[in-house]
Amino acid sequence: MNDTGEKQVKWQEIKSMADSRNTDPREIEISLLKEGSIPLHYVRNIKAISKEEQLQLLQTRVGVCGCGGLGLNIINHLARMGVGHITVWDPDIFSESNLNRQLWSNFSNLGESKVDVCLEEIAKINPAVTVTSIQSRWEDSAGDLFRQQNVIVDALDSIPARLDLADACAAAGVPLVHGAVGGWYGQLTVIMPGDRCLHDWYGKFVQQGIENVLGTLPFTAAVIASMQAAEAIKLLIGRESVLKDEFCLVDLLDLSLERIKKCNNDVT
Amino acid sequence: MLVKVKLFANFRKNRFKEKEMDLEDNCTVGWVIDYLKIPRKELGVVFLNGLSTTPEAILHAGDTLSIFPMVGGG
Fold this sequence. Notes:
The complex is a heterodimer. In chain A, strand 6, helix 7 and strand 7 form a beta-alpha-beta unit. Chain A starts with 7 loop residues before the first strand and ends in a 7-residue tail after the last strand. In chain A, 39% of the residues lie in helices and 18% in strands. By secondary structure, chain A is an alpha/beta fold. Chain A is globular and about 55 Å long. By secondary structure, chain B is mainly beta. Chain B has one domain (2-69): Roll (Ubiquitin-like (UB roll)). In chain B, 9% of the residues lie in helices and 34% in strands. In chain B, a hairpin with a 2-residue loop joins strand 3 and strand 4. In chain B, 34% of the residues are buried. The A-B interface holds A 66, 68-71, 154-159, 162, 179-187, 200-202, 204-211, 213-214, 216, 221, 249, 251, 254, 258, 260-261, 263 and B 8-10, 12, 17, 40-47, 50-52, 54, 66, 68-74.
């Protein structure tokens, strides 16, 4: 019990209850939260989000397209927050050039599938989360799987692929949290179905980003990924997000954050 | 005529963050981009008074021009 009389339940107890009832731990956590108890590993979430919102998170699904500098940080946050189901897509294996920025990559797992490593790491962080890991490009299995998601997160690394993803999310009627980085700079926005802002943003000029000349730094990826995770969580629990109407631009060299109004009016 | 020009991310390096530029009448967005030696191949979106624009657009006194690089890494 804590000082407000709420029962806090340790993971070992949750696991035992799941084993004895032959169900998965996520279901036990849902029951506990419904009764007003709090799984101890979420206790620091509560107050920033309510118990009801924690319960809501456990019953939601998020798809993360890309397990690179952005994606792995995003997945880490979503799993620790207690998002119930996470689907991850990436066709690649870890390579040496990933080591400067990609969470969970190390010299021992070079050559291993990124989505397999993801699966192992999430199981260590929060075994209540169920994970669907797909070692291929998201395009190969979008359709029905996209429609099942409450939110999709864009953690891709090319501009044409990002535009295709925005179209696929619009077709599935699922909100998309966009983020991109290059050097010390990054951007993010929330794209509701019907919002064509990404095409407006990327569509008029060339299709090659500054990351090709400025590289990708670990802290830039981590900052933008954290902000994307926060936006995804806000969408999942129904909190307001100003980024439905704006782009957010982050400059870590002069520590500035600017918000630019979107210009289309067709946002649902 | 005076036009406010705002640059973002690496476009600020050796240039400026925000500046009032005194331009000739009928000056275009593309002229400003070229005058500032911003390579067209690095150009992302360009906003004129908060709306997406093209290099051919003509500027007017009091306009605000915002120029962004293309960022697409992950």
